[in-house]
Predict the 3D structure of the following.
Amino acid sequence: MKIISLLLVDDEDDFRTTLANRLKKRNLDVTDAASGEEALELIGKKSFDVAIVDIKMPGIDGIETLRRIRKIDPLLEVILLTGHASVEAGVEGMKYGAYDYIIKPCNVNDLLIKVEDACRRRMIEKEHAQEKPECSKS
Amino acid sequence: MFKKLKFFKRNKSHKESSSGDNLPDLFRFKYSCFKMLLDSNAEFLNVITDLTEKLRGQQVFSMSYVRFRSAKAVFHALRMIKNLDDLSGHRYSQMFDTLENINLKIKEILGRKKEISVSELTLPYSAINAEMMDWVGGKNANLGEIHSRIGLPIPSGFAVTTRAFESFLLNSALFDEISSKKMNIDPDNPETIKVISDDIRQLILAADVPPVIEDAILLAHAKLAEETSCGKSQDSSLRISMRSSAVGEDSELSFAGQYLSRLNVPKEDIIRTYKEIVASLYTPRAISYRLNKGIRDEDIAMSVACIQMVESVASGVMYSGNPINMLEENIIITAVWGLGPYAVDGVITPDTYTVGRNSQTISSDISRKRVQLISKPDGGLTEIPVADDLQDKPCLSADNIVVLAGYARKLEDHYGCPQDIEWAIDSKGVIFILQSRPLRAEDSGKSYPATPILTGYPLLIEKGVTVSGGVGFGPAFHVSTDEDLYNFPDGAVLIARHTSPKLVIVIKKTRAIVTDMGNIAGHMATLAREFGVPTIVSTNVATSVIPAGMEVTVDAYSGRVYQGRVPELDEFQITGEFPMKNTPVYKVLREVSDLIVPLHLLDPGAPDFAPPFCRTLHDISRLVHELSYSEMFKLSDLVSDKKGLAFKLKGNIKLDLYVIDLGSGLTENNLNLNSISTNEIASVPFKALLKGLMNDDFHQNQLRPVEFSGFLSVMREQMLAPPSAAERFGDRSYAIISDKYLNFSSRIGYHYGIVDSYCSRTVNMNYITFSFKGGAANDIRRNRRARAIARILQSLDFTSEVTGDRVTARYQKHEIHLIEDKLDLIGRLLQFTRQMDMLMTNEASIEVLADNFLEGNYNLEKIISGQ
C-alpha cells in the first residue's frame, strides 16, 4: 500500500502532537490542524486519503467539519474521535458519512488499523465512482 | 454486478502468504466491514439486554439513561446498516431511511417537553391560581389558589416564575454543563450522586443571575414592602421567607423537604438565596428522590415563593384526615412554639390534637417543647429555649383549634381530597395558611391488622407512633451522620434519633425506620408513606434499646419492635417490587423500547424478512446481521477461479453449518465445489472448536425430556412465541475462517451463540470471545442457565459477565495450545447447552450442571437421575 496521507484535526495540542508523532513513526504522512477552520483550509490545498477529526472542538465542531469536508472531497474518509458520552453526535457523524469512530483516548495500533481500513474503502469507492459515476452515494 | 474482479485478481498472488495480513484489499475491506458490523451487533444486543432488564422496573434509572441507551441503539443499528451497505456495494442504501423513520419516532418521544407559557419573571399571588402549576410550581400555585379562590388568609408575597429559572439556566450556559455532568450519575452508587451533586451546586452558586431577573425580583420585593406598609424607603427592613416551589412539588408527589427553604431573608441576601434554592434541585437527596420516583429531568423547574415573613408565635401542620387510616375522618393538628421548621423536620416532638369534623377536640397530646426557632435581627434563624412556664403548655387555644379545623374542612372541600396544610399564628393571633397540598395516604387496599403482642419474642419497643404501616425485618443500622447514609447496607432497618428528609437517600434500601423523635406530620413520615416503608417514630428509646447489627422485626401496624425474626408477621412484610413502574421516566422507557426491543422478523425464509417490514431497531439489526452473512457468501462469486470460498460442512455435528474461507482456512486438497468435510479444515481455531462440537459424548445418547414440568414450561414458551419462531430450530450456522481466525455464529433452537477467536504464535494477539443469549423456558430458567454457563467459563479461566439471559466471556493472551483447548471446551459447552433450559428447575441445578460439565459428564439424563 502506498504511503497514507493523513490529516489529524484536534484542538488539544498535547494529544494532537503526540499522536501525530506516533503515526509519523509508523510511516504515515501526517498533517495536523488545531481547528475545523484550519483543516478545511488545508484540504483545499492538499489531497488527503483519511482525516481523523475530534468531535468536540471550539468554533466549527467535528460534525460540521465532517459535513464540509464531505462537500469539498466526498472521497476523503473521515474517522471521528469521540468521548464515551457523545453517542448522539456519533449518530449525526455516521449520517454525514463518517467512515467510523474511535473512542478517545485510543490505542495507536487500533487507530492505525482503522486508518488502513478507511484508506481501503477510499480506494474501493474511488473505483466504484470511476466505473459508475452516476451511482455515487450522497 | 461487481466489476472489481480485476482489482481482486491483481492482488490474488498474495493469498498464499495467508493469515489476516496479506489478504487482498477487497477482501480485507469486506472483512473489516463485517467485523464492524459484528461489533455493533454485539453492542446492540447489549443495549437490548440492558433495556429489557430495566423494563422489569426493579432498577432505578434516570432520563439520561434512557437517552443514552436509545442513542446507543440507534448508533449501532446505523453502523450495522452502513457496513452492510459498504459490504454489498451500496445495495442496501434504502435501509438508512428505514432506520431514520424509527429514529425520528424515538426522538419525538424523547424530545417532548413541557412548554413554559408565562412571560413574566415574577407574579404576585393575586395573579396566581392552581392552574398555573407549570409556571410557578406547586407551592406558589396552591398559595395563589388559597388567596384568590378560597379566600383564606395567606401572607403577602410573589412568585419568581419558571421563566426566570429557564433564562437563568440558559443565559449562564448552565443548562449544558449540568446535563453533561448528570450523565455520570450511577443511581446505585450514592457516592457518585454526592460528587456530581457538589459539582452542579457549585456551578449554579458561582453563576451570575442575569440583571433582568435580578431587577425583576428586587422590583417585586419593593412593591411588597410598599404593600405591607414597610414603606418604600424602608424596603430594606422587609424580611421575607423564600421557599422552593418546584414544578411537580406539592402535587401528587410531595417532594416533602427535598428542596431548600430559607426564612427571614434580608434584602441583600435575596439573590444569593435565589441561587441556593435553585441549586437545591441538585442536593443528593433531591437527585435520589427524582431518580427513585422516575421524574424526567426535562420536567423539573424551580420557581421560588417569596413571602412576607410571619413572626409566628406558634406554627405547625394540619392533616384534614388520618393518613394511616383514611376511613377515620378526624383532623389532626400538630403544633410547636415559634417558627414552623421544627414542626416538620423531626427536631422536637410537637403537640398533637385530634379534632372531630364538628371541630370538637377529641384528644390533645401535649409534649414538652424545650426549644423553639425565632428570627434573628440580622437575618436567619436561631434556636432559643422556650420559657419555662410554656414548655408543657398547649400551643393552641380552643378557639385556635376551631378556626384551624374550619380552614382544613374548607381546603379539603375546595380541592376535593384530604389536605396536608402548614399554618402559623402571628403575635396578633391571626392564623395564616402557608401551604396546602394533597395528603399522602397509605394505599387503601392494604390490610390493617391490629395484632396482639406476640409472645415468645423479646419486645424491644412496645409503643411508638406509626406514621407508615407495614412490617419490616432486617439488621439494625444506626444513622446519625451523612457518612452513615452512604454506608447504609441494603435491607437494613434504619434506627435514628431524629427523623429527617435526608433519609430519602437510602429509603429504597431500608426495610423499616424507627426513630426516637418525630411525628406523623413530619416530612420524613410523608416520604415513608410515599415509598411504602414501615415506619415508627416517637419511640423515645429506639437508639438506646436497639443495638446496631441486631436483627429486628418492626411491626409498624402496631408500633412495636421485636428482637429477631417473627414468622407470624412475615405475610405482612412489604417488598418494594417494581418501584419504577408507572413513573414518567419508566413510561418514556416503555415507549422508546417499543421501537427498539421487540423482534418481529423471525424467519429468514419468510417473504417479510425484508427491509420494508422492519418495525424496530431489533428487526433492523436481525435482518442486517443475516444479510451480512449472505454478502460474505457472495464473496465467492467474485472469484472466477473454480475454487469457491463458501461451503456447507458435512460431518457429524448436528448443525446446518456453512463455512466461508477468507484465506488459508482450508487444506489445499479439497476438490468438492459445494461442500467440505471436517478433515479439510485448516483453520487452527475452527479445528479446535469442531473437535468440541463433535465430541462423541454428545452423539451417543439422545436426551429425552424427563422432568415433566420443565418440559411443559419449554413447550409453553414455544406456544407463546410467534409460530415462525418454532421453525428457527433449523437455522443456519456460519463459520468465517482464515488459518488463524474464526468467527462462529450459531442459532440452535432458541439459543444464539457467537465465538470469535484469533489463534497464532503471537501470544499477545490471541483471544477467544464468547457470547450466548436467549433460549426457551422462562426468564428465571434462562437466567439460571446463563449463570451456569458463566460459572463454567469462570472455572475455565474466562472472565465472564451475566446480564439477564446473556453471557459474555473473554479469554486472551494465552499460548496457542491453551486457546485450542478452550475452544474445544467451548464446542462441548455449545452442545451441552442445547437442552440445558429444561433442567434449570432450581438454584441448585446451576451448580450441579456446572460441576458435571467440568468433570466431563455430558450425559444430561444421568445428571438428572443423579439429582
Remarks:
- Chain A has five helices and five strands.
- Chain A touches chain B at residues 1, 85, 87-88, 90-91, 94-95, 100, 117, 120-121, 123-124, 127-128, 131, 135, 137 (CB under 8 Å).
- The longest helix of chain A spans residues 108-131.
- Chain A has one domain: 5-135.
